[in-house]
């Protein structure tokens, strides 16, 4: 597998997860491995919405599940939260298999440690902005005043100050999803699930909210699972992306890896329109440091596109610094320019 | 064409005109050849009769007299229930209509007056103003003043008290059943089937068993009304809960809601707009039923109409009828406004200050009514009345237009109605059942055909075949009349957007009127008899014909019309080849609705002396015989379900033909 392994402590781990729909979905577990090809299953009118998904998500990582409609990405997300019961497999949160949890502990897990943002917002029309944001806390039995005080904080965080007493019907789509985001964070969850949160919004609003998610993630790093069909969105937000095709994960990798080393033709076609400079990082192009050197400093983590103005300025090689500001290498302007020019 | 149409794939032949001709020819042949058939196949043989009506009679009587659970007589339970139900009715009547009265006869002393009519009217107008606007507030004021000044207030409040209690009861029960049905998917089809039958059984059939169980009086009427108004609430609840988006339910699970929290905090609030539409239907159905139930001792406006009709005092009847209209329109508009506010998210319309104002509006005139009794009950001496005017108008019409009216009536009776009735009655039952089943099979497959045959046989074996043909004759003619007027008018209106709103308003108003109101003008002009019944049923059933005529034309895909225009079609060609075929499925559903409305009116029309199932039910009611009453009622339901099955399959087939999925 060309998949990139997780580089942080593992928070969520999925092993051999299947979700099968059809008349005899219950009998699926008894099927031998050889009988699990799409063709063999189609003979028995079984549809594998998620086929043998396995991956690990690191603590604080933004893991994007991406694919076209019908590829099974939303089903996979719902398997992770057990909104949909997987047909087979193990899903571990901090080593605990949630598929073995009873109803009570599962509800407790969802209440305290998970938050979810929905594609069509799923706001309650009879509650105000504050009432919606406070909803998860109220369901836990917190009294209204305390819940609303917390909700007020979150309304401020997502930029809804002054609109606390409006009803959802009085808000624009973008504002409604801000409420959805705030609500998903009221309980300060460790695990943040976003199911195509911005696909019902127009492009300008979508960009705003993507920036909002990036900002929230910077302020408070959460383990985030983000489903989208928008490659641009995936590249902007993801630490790693899992690309799904017909229920199967075909590749897991950083945006850079997907563009530079696509595992299949499908992935290649998918990422063909992405300008390499947007995903390739300085660290991939630099040459190791040779003693002391001069030149303008650039961050090793930056993408080539981000430092484009400095690349096109005249001068010698650029000095590459790591996260702690130590020089780790040199970036040749010529090779950076080539990357910048390719794929345009 | 390479494309195979779905109909052809299912193996159903496409030559439908040929089939229609065959059926027509078959019917004609049967009529001619009927005398040749063995008598058993012409008239229902006694051996085939099932004494169902006797069994029901016996069962009901047993239930009412002898049934007991562990020494506790069933009838005691029902009587106790009736007494319990009596209590809130009386409380509301004290509050709204009568006040607290001590003693009787000449010693009668009113200790506490009822809420003042002025107060109730003003408070309701304030509510109307807040939830809708100035228009409805004015309408409410006018309606209130009409009821008070014309001396109808006490009757109207008696009716309103029953309506309020029944609505609350039907709401609670309907919600409970609907929630159960929604939760257990296995139960839903069963509930739907029962509810479908319940909606088609005529009103009077509900009254009978309740009379037997709960005794003659307001609480029997209350139970009958609640049962009658239940199906739309159950239906609305199931639909409303089903309309809750799956994501919203996922939210409830993700926030760890308990079942109760999910229901009360998520599902019901989200479903509220649709539930409010259900509330509107329940209120209107309740009002209709309460008016009818006046006959079994609930009193109120319906009783006023009936009493006036018996005295042949059309003027007073008309006046009370207009009182019903006033009440109906205000109730309808108020609940509709509430539903609309819910669905468009208008909120915070009613503040705490409004509550205080409303309270003051109620209290001040009521308090003043100690000093000024006219504020409690408008004095009889000062009552306005338009009855003499209406009576004079009727006399005037009868004096000056008697001959032409009578000529129309006689002509219709002799040349259209009677021959048609006789022809239907002469149709051998065996052949009629076979034809119906055949038609069902062709339109909807063997299941529909089998179901239709079973329901037709039910009518045969219960011994109501002949009255049933009478019902079919009256319904068919009334539907034909309603369609002949309504559909063309609807189609005509659909092309004139400026007319849409006034026509919609007219239709809304027509459909809010309780059925009894429709009888009045017909009887005023044409006296008792089948012709008056026909007019009343037709005018009651015309609203859906118009509505679906408009809707059908509105559903025509505009691209097809544009394509026709670009092919140089004339207006008529476009209408015949493009618009009409595309509208056909909707138009057929409109026919279905028209038939259902006509059937529900049938029993009311029995009041003016028809000879069919409705009359059987009505007679059974007046004689207190639950067996025949219920059985004949079930036969009406069978006719309705047969018509429904045939027309719905026809509509579905037409929709498939048009290549559209028709919900």
Task: Give the helices and strands, then pairings.
The complex is a heterodimer of chains A (344) and B (663).
Chain A: E1 10-21, H1 38-43, E2 47-58, E3 62-66, H2 73-81, E4 88-93, E5 96-97, H3 103-113, E6 114-117, H4 129-139, H5 144-157, H6 173-185, E7 191-195, H7 203-219, E8 223-228, H8 231-237, E9 240-245, E10 248-253, H9 255-260, H10 265-271, H11 276-279, H12 282-285, E11 287-288, E12 297-299, H13 308-312, E13 318-321, E14 327-331, H14 333-341
Parallel strand pairs in A: 3-8, 3-9, 6-7, 7-8, 12-13
Antiparallel strand pairs in A: 1-2, 1-4, 4-5, 9-10, 11-14, 13-14
Chain B: H1 6-9, H2 16-33, H3 39-42, H4 52-65, E1 68-69, E2 72-73, H5 74-98, E3 100-102, E4 109-112, H6 117-131, H7 134-149, H8 153-183, H9 187-200, H10 203-214, H11 218-242, H12 246-254, H13 259-293, H14 301-310, H15 314-343, H16 352-368, H17 387-426, H18 429-444, H19 446-461, H20 465-494, H21 497-512, H22 515-526, H23 530-554, H24 558-566, H25 571-605, H26 613-623, H27 626-657
Antiparallel strand pairs in B: 1-2, 3-4
Order of adjacent strands in the largest pleated sheet of chain A: 6-7-8-3-9-10
- What percent of residues of chain B adopt helix (DSSP H or I)? over 70%
Q: Say what the CATH topology of the domain at 416-657 in chain B is.
A: MetI-like fold
Provide the CATH architecture of the largest domain in chain A: 3-Layer(aba) Sandwich
Q: What distinguishing features does this structure have?
A:
heterodimer, A: 344 residues, alpha/beta, Rossmann fold, CBS domain Like, 2 domains, six-stranded mixed sheet, four-stranded antiparallel sheet, 14 helices, 14 strands, globular, B: 663 residues, mainly alpha, MetI-like fold, two-stranded antiparallel ribbon, two-stranded antiparallel sheet, 4 strands, 79% helix, 2% strand, disordered N terminus, membrane (chain B), cell membrane (chain B)
């Amino acid at each position: 597998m060309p998949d990139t392994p997780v580089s942080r402590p593992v928070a969520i781990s999925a092993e051999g997860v299947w979700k099968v729909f059809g008349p005899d979905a219950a009998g699926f577990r008894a099927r031998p491995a050889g009988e699990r090809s799409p063709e063999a299953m189609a003979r028995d009118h079984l549809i594998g919405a998620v086929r043998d998904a396995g991956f690990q998500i690191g603590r604080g990582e933004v893991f994007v599940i991406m694919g076209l409609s019908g590829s099974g990405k939303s089903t996979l997300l719902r398997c992770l939260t057990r909104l949909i019961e997987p047909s087979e497999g193990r899903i571990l949160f901090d080593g605990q298999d949630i598929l073995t949890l009873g109803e009570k502990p599962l509800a407790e897990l969802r209440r305290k440690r998970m938050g979810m943002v929905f594609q069509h917002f799923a706001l309650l029309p009879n509650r105000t902005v504050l009432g919606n944001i406070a909803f998860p806390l109220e369901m836990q039995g917190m009294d209204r005043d305390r819940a609303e005080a917390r909700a007020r904080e979150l309304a401020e965080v997502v930029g809804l100050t002054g609109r606390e007493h409006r009803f959802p019907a009085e808000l624009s789509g973008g504002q409604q999803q801000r409420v959805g985001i705030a609500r998903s964070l009221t309980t300060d969850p460790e695990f943040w699930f976003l199911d195509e949160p911005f696909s019902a919004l127009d492009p300008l609003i979508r960009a705003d909210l993507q920036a909002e998610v990036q900002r929230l993630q910077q302020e408070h790093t959460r383990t985030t699972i983000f489903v989208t069909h928008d490659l641009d969105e995936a590249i902007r937000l993801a630490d790693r992306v899992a690309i799904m095709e017909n229920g199967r994960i075909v590749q897991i990798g950083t945006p850079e890896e997907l563009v530079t080393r696509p595992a299949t033709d499908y992935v290649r076609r998918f990422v063909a329109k992405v300008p390499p400079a947007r995903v390739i990082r300085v660290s991939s192009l630099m040459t190791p440091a040779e003693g002391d050197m001069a030149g303008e400093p650039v961050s090793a983590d930056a993408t080539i596109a981000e430092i484009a103005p400095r690349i096109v300025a005249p001068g010698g090689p650029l000095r590459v610094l790591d996260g702690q500001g130590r020089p780790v290498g040199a970036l040749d302007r010529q090779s950076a320019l080539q990357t910048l020019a390719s794929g345009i | 064409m390479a494309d195979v149409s779905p109909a052809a794939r299912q193996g159903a032949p496409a030559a439908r005109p040929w089939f229609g001709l065959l059926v027509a020819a078959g019917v004609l042949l049967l009529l001619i050849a009927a005398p040749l058939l063995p008598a058993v196949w012409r008239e229902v043989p006694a051996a085939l009769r099932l004494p169902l009506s006797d069994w029901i009679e016996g069962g009901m009587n047993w239930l009412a007299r002898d049934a007991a659970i562990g020494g506790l007589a069933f009838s005691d339970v029902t009587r106790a229930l009736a007494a319990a139900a009596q209590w809130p009715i009386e409380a509301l009547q004290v509050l709204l209509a009568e006040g607290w009265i001590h003693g009787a006869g000449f010693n009668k002393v009113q200790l506490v007056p009822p809420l003042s009519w002025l107060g109730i009217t003003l408070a309701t107008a304030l509510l109307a103003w807040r939830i809708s606007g100035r228009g409805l507030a004015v309408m409410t004021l006018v309606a209130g003043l009409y009821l008070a000044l014309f001396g109808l207030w006490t009757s109207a409040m008696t009716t309103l008290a029953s309506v309020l209690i029944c609505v609350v009861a039907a709401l609670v029960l309907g919600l409970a059943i609907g929630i159960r049905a929604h939760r257990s998917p296995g139960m839903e089809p069963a509930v739907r089937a029962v509810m479908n039958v319940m909606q088609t059984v005529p009103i009077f059939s509900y009254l009978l068993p309740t009379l037997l169980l709960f005794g003659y009086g307001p609480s029997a009427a209350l139970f009958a009304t609640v049962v009658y108004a239940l199906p739309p609430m159950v239906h609305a609840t199931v639909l409303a809960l089903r309309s809750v988006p799956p994501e919203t339910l996922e939210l409830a699970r993700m926030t760890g809601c308990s079942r109760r929290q999910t229901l009360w905090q998520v599902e019901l609030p989200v479903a509220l707009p649709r539930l409010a539409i259900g509330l509107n239907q329940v209120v209107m159905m309740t009002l209709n039923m309460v008016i009818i139930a006046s006959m079994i001792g609930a009193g109120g406006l319906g009783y006023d109409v009936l009493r006036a009709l018996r005295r042949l005092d059309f003027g007073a009847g008309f006046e009370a009828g207009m009182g019903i209209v006033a009440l109906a329109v205000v109730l309808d508009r108020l609940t509709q406004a509430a539903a609309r506010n819910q669905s468009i998210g208008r909120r915070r319309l009613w503040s705490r200050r409004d509550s205080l104002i409303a309270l003051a509006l109620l209290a001040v005139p009521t308090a003043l009514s100690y000093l000024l009794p006219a504020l409690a009950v408008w004095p009889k001496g000062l009552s306005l009345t338009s009855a003499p005017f209406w009576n004079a108008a009727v006399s005037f019409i009868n004096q000056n237009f008697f001959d032409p009216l009578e000529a129309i009536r006689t002509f219709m009776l002799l040349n259209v109605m009677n021959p048609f009735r006789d022809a239907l009655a002469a149709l051998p039952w065996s052949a009629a059942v076979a034809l119906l089943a055949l038609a069902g099979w062709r339109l909807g497959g063997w299941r529909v055909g089998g179901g239709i045959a079973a329901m037709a046989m039910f009518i045969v074996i219960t011994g109501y075949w002949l009255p049933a043909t009478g019902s079919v004759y009256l319904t068919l003619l009334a539907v034909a009349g309603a369609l002949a007027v309504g559909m063309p008018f609807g189609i005509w209106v659909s092309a004139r957007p400026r007319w849409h709103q006034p026509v919609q308003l007219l239709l809304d108003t027509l459909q809010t009127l309780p059925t009894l109101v429709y009888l009045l003008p017909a009887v005023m002009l044409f006296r008792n008899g089948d012709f008056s019944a026909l007019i009343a049923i037709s005018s009651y059933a015309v609203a859906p014909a118009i509505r679906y005529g408009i809707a059908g034309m509105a559903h025509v895909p505009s691209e097809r019309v544009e394509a026709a225009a670009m092919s140089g079609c004339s207006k008529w060609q476009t209408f015949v080849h493009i618009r009409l075929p595309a509208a056909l499925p909707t138009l057929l559903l409109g026919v279905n609705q028209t038939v259902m409305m006509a059937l529900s009116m049938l029993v009311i029309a029995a009041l003016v002396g028809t000879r069919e199932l409705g009359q059987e039910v009505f007679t059974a009611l007046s004689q207190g015989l639950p067996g025949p009453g219920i059985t004949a009622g079930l036969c009406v339901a069978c006719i309705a379900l047969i018509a429904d099955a045939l027309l719905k399959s026809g509509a579905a087939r037409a929709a498939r033909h048009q290549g559209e999925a028709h919900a």
